[in-house]
Amino acid sequence: MILETRHPIHEILSRQPLFRGLSESELAQISAGTREFRVKKNEMIFHKGDPSEGMHVVVMGQIKLALPSAQGMEKVVHVCGPGNTFGEAVVFLDKPYPVSAQATAESLLLLVSKRVLLEAMDASPTLCRKMMASLSLRLHELLGDMETCMLRSSVQRVICFLVQSATGGEKDAYEINLPSSKQTIASHLNLAPETFSRVLGQLTEAGLIQVRGRVITVLDRQNLVNFSA
């Protein structure tokens, strides 16, 4: 990790969703216990079982949270983009990290120490409410992922991903710029990479999508939703 000192940390914190709206004194308290780092693509931030240092905030870039296996494979649990946080749950549990974190692109991160985060929450009901909302949203997302992986076929999982990737307001055709590699997305959907590619090919043959590298064009959203393999 390379230490960054380009911008005041309190200024960066104030722009993050979790800390937006906090007072200057609250931001000053948190920034005093926050470090700023830039990580390179594919660099490991921590491994499963490492002791928790605090909560990470993604300022720029993308971080993959994954469960490694003894066979060298991994299950992607979550992909964090700008404004997302990770590692906060273990701060409250005082346990080691249950997943590994790796940068999938060059990224800029903040690390808020456990002590400072807990002290700030003791002093700020606003931060407590935001933290509860953030963790509740993460739980909701994990339950959705479980439903996708356990109760749906491979085709249904890919269709669900394509539909949910719409930026909003699309009725018919729209483009999706894949936020991660196809391998990472396949792992998140609990699919083998070749299965993910096969389903994309199947949907292409059905005239529902077009694939150009990491850009997927959905040609007809409603027909895609109604598609049955």
Describe the overall structure.
This protein is α+β, with helices and mostly antiparallel strands and 229 residues long. It folds into 2 domains: 2-150, Jelly Rolls (Sandwich), CATH 2.60.120.10; 152-226, Winged helix-like DNA-binding domain superfamily/Winged helix DNA-binding domain (Arc Repressor Mutant, subunit A), CATH 1.10.10. Helices cover 41% and strands 24% of the residues. It is built from 9 helices and 12 strands. The protein has helices at 9-14, 24-31, 88-93, 114-123, 125-151, 154-164, 182-188, 193-205, 221-226; strands at 2-3, 34-39, 44-46, 54-60, 63-68, 74-80, 85-86, 100-103, 107-113, 174-177, 209-212, 215-218. A 5-stranded antiparallel β-sheet has the order 1-2-9-4-7. It has a 4-stranded antiparallel β-sheet with strand order 3-8-5-6. Strands 10-12-11 form a 3-stranded antiparallel β-sheet. A hairpin with a 2-residue loop joins strand 11 and strand 12. Helix 4 (114-123) crosses helix 5 and helix 7 packs across helix 8 (193-205). The longest helix has 27 residues, at 125-151. 28% of the residues are buried. Mean pLDDT is 85; it is low at 1-5.
